[in-house]
Amino acid sequence: MSAPLIRVLVVDDSPFMRGVLPPKIESDPRFKVVGTAVDGRDAVEKTLALQPDVVTLDIDMPIMNGLDALKEIVRQSTASVIMLSARTEQGAAITLEALALGAVDFIPKSRGVDRIHEKLLAAVEAKTHKSRLSTPKPTLVLRPTTAPPRAAGGARVNAKVCIIGSSTGGPQALQAVLSQLPEALPVPLVVAQHMPPNFTNALANRLNDTCKPKIVEAADGMALTKGTVYISPGGMQTRISATEIKISPDHGESLYKPSVDVLAESARSAFGKNVLGVMLTGMGGDGSIEFGKLRKLGAHNIAQDQASCVVYGMPRTLIEAGGADEVLPLDQIGMRIRSALGC
User: For the residues of 225-239, what is the DSSP string, one character each?
Assistant: First the structure.
């Protein structure tokens, strides 16, 4: 018996986008577009009437804009929402606001809705996860099965750099983690968040405005210094040496730009076992290979637990491969980084 089709509602005031998106979505036989909506109010009404699994939601619309519609959809339904975002500085800032309000992910319009099926699948997983959380169950703490944790909670880690990988749900998770860190970080911290160009600068600015450490979008040749959090720029690959950041175009290294694996490989080359790795929510398995190599050297890895992930993909892959030393809920990871680094 075949799996039920994933039901999608497309919301956009542009007749062109309402014409382009449904056949693009339905080019994958796992998906069915159950309707379209022309403005935010129409989106809320059709979400409640059609009960889609996922809503693709434009931001700039008449009658009710995308942010207001998002609030109502999140409040009144279990549908996951993916925003359709303009690739502008203002559009990026509004998109991050939408993620903070409960959108699962976003798709930049001008890229021809690249990777839309992957993002729709991630949104469905987020919907399923949200449904599981709404059903009270006994809490089980998942631990790596291939080897016991090598450091007790709170133990210091001899790290000279901290690297964080994240994807779907990452902006919200990064906010939760970095807001727990002090201004005086004793090591540099480098983040590879799957995100397209322009949006990573807006993310860095937003985090810098709300968190104590200095947070910047990384640039090629920038000095790698303690006390600073570097957000890898979207659309490029980020590597680190012992003293600086190196940014370059992707040359086929990874589907993801920036890639957690690419960043982690460079951290291993530069710092060996003196790395603290953190794997947050995200679809897929980027980072698990190189985080695993780091752990075999003696580095220490923390993975976000299933219950607190928006999408339990990247942490799950790392844990199942035996690459995690600790598995923690999101609200404990920032404090664990502090205890690991002694700050």
Answer: -TTEEEEPPTTSEEE
Q: Which residues fall within 8 angstroms of residue 234, CB to CB, at 6 or more apart?
A: 195, 196, 197, 198, 199, 200, 257, 258
**Number of Cβ within a 10 Å radius of residue 181:** 21
Q: Is 194 assigned a catalytic role?
A: yes
Among the listed residues 266, 264, 267, 262, the one whose alpha carbon sits nearest the alpha carbon of residue 249: 262
Of the listed 167, 259, 266, 288, which one is catalytic? 167
- 93: buried, middle or exposed (CB in 10 Å: 19+, 13-18, 0-12)? middle
| Number of residues that this document lists for the chain | 343
pLDDT, one tens digit per residue, over 41-65 is 999 999 999 999 999 999 988 899 9
Residue 27, number of CB atoms within 10 A of its CB: 10
d(CA 75, CA 87): 27
Give this prediction's pTM: 0.89
Is 261 an annotated catalytic residue?
no
Q: Which of 286, 288, 300, 308 is catalytic?
A: 286
